[in-house]
Amino acid sequence: MTDAIRPLIAGNWKMNGLKAAAAEFDAMLNGAAEVAGKADLLVCPPATLIAAFSDKARGKAVGVGAQDCHPKPSGAHTGDVAAEMLVDAGATAIIVGHSERRADHGEGDALIRHKAEAAWRAGAVAIVCIGETQAQRDAGQTLDILRGQLHGSLPEGSTAANLVVAYEPVWAIGTGLTPTSQDVEQIHGFIRELLTSRFKADGAAIRLLYGGSVKPSNAAELMAVKNVNGALIGGASLKAADFLAIAKGCP
Ligand code: PEP
């Protein structure tokens, strides 16, 4: 963990959560003050819950974010949601380029960059996800893949205030598998170098999250790794107790 960078613990609820999930979110709000000294907290529920959750979260130590956006502000795009609409509903950050969007919807780096710019246009922080697949890892291509994704997905003008990068090895998402701390340190160090060489002082301060099967039992070890400035959490973010326990694991 880089001392000067305050960690971010972000939950990605994916396509999970009906209105009744507000009770779990309430439990997160109630426990947030206890971990506020450790990290910033962000919950990204499905778009249908953003407005209700952000109303509840007003004045509390949990932010509300979104999981995706369309690059355009409005128009004939049936079923899509603009960044402006998400911000209007209360989102302060928008995840873009999650590997499930890249795989299920064929999203490429250029589109993801435009989505990140859309988040900025609307006034939200962009959380840009990158990560290699198992096949790419087996072929020894991890660093090349990450270099390409960073180059293509991050807009010019990225700063510590408008961008968060989440390194999420695809093979670690939802599988219970995690890279070793040594692997995470090497890869986060590599990403940090690229960010610093492109964005200078801002690149040195951009939050760099690890994501992929983070849970209370492995959080403290992963969060202590150099250049890990928090986590993006899928499954374990659905339960307040687990989500808060992960935040407690931050150094
Ligand atoms: C994710 O999908 O962003 C993720 C990290 O999922 P999980 O924590 O369930 O592996």
Automatic annotation (TrEMBL):
Q: Which UniProt keywords apply?
A: Cytoplasm, Gluconeogenesis, Glycolysis, Isomerase
Q: Which cell locations does it reside in?
A: Cytoplasm
- Kindly provide the name given to this protein in its UniProt entry: Triosephosphate isomerase
**According to its record, what are the GO cellular component terms?**
cytosol
**Assembly with partners or alone:** Homodimer.
| Similarity comment text for this entry | Belongs to the triosephosphate isomerase family.
Q: Which domain of life is it from?
A: Bacteria
Q: NCBIfam families attached here?
A: tim
Question: Which catalysed reactions does the entry list for this protein?
Answer: L-erythrulose 1-phosphate = D-erythrulose 4-phosphate; D-glyceraldehyde 3-phosphate = dihydroxyacetone phosphate
Instruction: Check the record and name the PANTHER family matching this protein.
Output: TRIOSEPHOSPHATE ISOMERASE
Active-site residues annotated for this sequence? H98, E168
Q: What Enzyme Commission number(s) does the record list for this chain?
A: 5.3.1.1
- What CDD domains does the entry give? TIM (cd00311)
Per UniProt, substrate binds at N12, W13, K14, G174, S213, G234, G235
Recorded metabolic or biological pathway in which this protein acts = Carbohydrate degradation; glycolysis; D-glyceraldehyde 3-phosphate from glycerone phosphate: step 1/1; Carbohydrate biosynthesis; gluconeogenesis; Carbohydrate metabolism; erythritol degradation
List the Gene Ontology MF annotations in alphabetical order.
triose-phosphate isomerase activity
Its GO biological process annotations read: gluconeogenesis; glyceraldehyde-3-phosphate biosynthetic process; glycerol catabolic process; glycolytic process
Q: Which organism is it from?
A: Bradyrhizobium rifense
| Alphabetized Pfam families for the sequence | TIM
Q: What class of enzyme is it?
A: isomerase
